[in-house]
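Hey, can you fold this?
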Amino acid sequence: MSASGIMTMKSLRAAAVACVCFFLAVPPAFAVVDDAHSAALEGAMEQVKDGFKLRQEYWKGTLKAGEQKLVKHQLFKGNQVWFWLGTSTEAEVKLEIDVYDAKGNKVSAEKRSGSDFAAVHVDPKKTGTYLVVFKITGKTKDDIDWALVYGWK
């Protein structure tokens, strides 16, 4: 093998080592899909077609089956509001959601549900802080991912 061939082999080997080091040093960029958020958004499609605007902000987390979660939210008189609760679990679960005023009175007007979402419609009679209360029940022992989205018109 000639001297130039040896240099070429050394150059190729050095380039290969440099590439491997680069790919090990730079973490891969993966897109993360929040399936619970997607389920809530899919549940909202009918109301979006009816003119409801979705907020980009949303709440998310995990619950054990049977646990209840409460989210405080400011609602305004004159705005109709929908809340959509979505889950990514493939286990058979039941989603329950209601809205209460500051005095603890239920103000939910209409409800809808699907296999991976539940929704509640509210037409607040006055501006104030309201409580969105939801519960996910089922036989699974695993943590259940959830996301809560809202929209108004």
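Oh, and this one too while you're at it.
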Amino acid sequence: MLTGSGEEELDEADSRLQCSSTLVPVTSMSITIHGFDDISGYTVYAISAEVSSLDGWRHHFQSRHRFSDFLQLHKAVSKPLSLPAFPLPKLVIRTKKAKRARMAGLQRYMDTLVISSGQWLIEPVRRFLNAYETRAVTPSKASSVYDIAREIT
């Protein structure tokens, strides 16, 4: 459910999300890191995402990323979302126990990212999740999205 004045939220979204050329308004978003595999000497984390859009559609996405991809995502979103430093060190990890611990840390990071994104799927996260089936709007058109959402809710 959207809260507050649409114009206030739009101003906040515009200022916080300048890293994106498009925004996807969402009613809910969840990202789950559900496993890992070792491929060509690297650990790759399996990610599932579910995004519910204002028009009632529920989208499911699957992606796989190395730890360095998470670092690149953080670099792209940390300033606009006011995130603290990336919470995990870049280390060579070999044991399954250490990889599970890193996976748990990456899940906590993604949970923080979802909360910080508010009601928007911003472009760097959209690319990370391979979420291209969602309907995007430019920040300048986002105010009409809030008007529609107020009518619906």
